């Protein structure tokens, strides 16, 4: 994530440690993927209480942009910053491969610049990525246009096979009602460098940067 933000996107990037209590003036906060605290208990459940999360939560509550990828998305749900939960994959196995996701809205900094008709090829790497929300929450997510991505096939169709982790309604990412906090399970930073022969993920970062610059101006 740091490589893509600093080298590919050419952005001033600050590494924040989990024991830090100061965001050092960062405009956009990114909670990256990985295995915080060994994924003990539930993925993200312990990291949610890291010292850095207090200013991160305050940043989000004050309208600041906050992005969570994979384990970062799990932390967002554990902290109640986005609706829903991430459960064990339906086949109880770790999944690491390229998948396709289709953006569902252009009303989020993460998706505003994306083609809603395109299936973006983005890698996943998780064991607890099955998105779940109760019926009332799902209704709210759909009515408020808070669903960011759904798992699909290469042509954009929502087939059962494309929903490899069993997420409810194929959901791969959501945002909060205020649209400044957004999370997704796939890893766009792993599809943002030409050296990897896939730059579909770069479009997501370009979208966030464009919105951040608009906000600053």
Automatic annotation (TrEMBL):
One of its GO terms (biological process) is 'de novo' IMP biosynthetic process. Its EC number is 6.3.5.3, 3.5.1.2. It catalyses: L-glutamine + H2O = L-glutamate + NH4(+); N(2)-formyl-N(1)-(5-phospho-beta-D-ribosyl)glycinamide + L-glutamine + ATP + H2O = 2-formamido-N(1)-(5-O-phospho-beta-D-ribosyl)acetamidine + L-glutamate + ADP + phosphate + H(+). Keywords: ATP-binding, Cytoplasm, Glutamine amidotransferase, Hydrolase, Ligase, Nucleotide-binding, Purine biosynthesis. One of its GO terms (cellular component) is cytoplasm. Pathway: Purine metabolism; IMP biosynthesis via de novo pathway; 5-amino-1-(5-phospho-D-ribosyl)imidazole from N(2)-formyl-N(1)-(5-phospho-D-ribosyl)glycinamide: step 1/2. GO terms for molecular function: ATP binding; glutaminase activity; phosphoribosylformylglycinamidine synthase activity. It is found in: Cytoplasm. It comes from the Bacteria. The active site is at residues 70, 187, 189. SMART domains: GATase_5. Part of the FGAM synthase complex composed of 1 PurL, 1 PurQ and 2 PurS subunits. Part of the phosphoribosylformylglycinamidine synthase complex involved in the purines biosynthetic pathway. Catalyzes the ATP-dependent conversion of formylglycinamide ribonucleotide (FGAR) and glutamine to yield formylglycinamidine ribonucleotide (FGAM) and glutamate. The FGAM synthase complex is composed of three subunits. PurQ produces an ammonia molecule by converting glutamine to glutamate. PurL transfers the ammonia molecule to FGAR to form FGAM in an ATP-dependent manner. This is Phosphoribosylformylglycinamidine synthase subunit PurQ. It comes from Catalinimonas alkaloidigena.
């Amino acid at each position: 994530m740091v490589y893509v933000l600093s080298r590919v996107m050419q952005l001033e990037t600050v590494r924040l440690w989990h024991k830090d209590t100061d965001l050092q003036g960062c405009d956009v906060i990114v909670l990256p993927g990985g295995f915080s605290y060994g994924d003990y208990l539930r993925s993200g459940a312990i990291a949610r209480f890291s010292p850095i999360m207090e200013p991160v939560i305050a940043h989000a509550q004050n309208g600041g942009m906050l992005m969570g990828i994979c384990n970062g998305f799990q932390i967002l749900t554990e902290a109640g910053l986005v609706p829903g939960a991430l459960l064990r994959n339906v086949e109880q196995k770790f999944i690491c491969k390229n998948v396709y996701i289709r953006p569902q809205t252009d009303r989020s900094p993460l998706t505003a610049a994306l083609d809603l008709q395109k299936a973006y090829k983005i890698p996943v790497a998780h064991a607890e990525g099955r998105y779940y929300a109760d019926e009332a929450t799902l209704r709210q997510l759909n009515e408020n246009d808070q669903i960011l991505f759904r798992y699909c096939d290469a042509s954009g169709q929502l087939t059962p096979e494309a929903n490899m982790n069993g997420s409810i309604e194929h959901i791969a990412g959501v945002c909060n009602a205020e649209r400044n906090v957004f999370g997704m399970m796939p890893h766009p930073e792993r599809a943002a460098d030409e050296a990897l022969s896939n730059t579909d993920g770069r479009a997501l970062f370009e979208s966030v940067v464009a919105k951040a610059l608009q906000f600053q101006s």
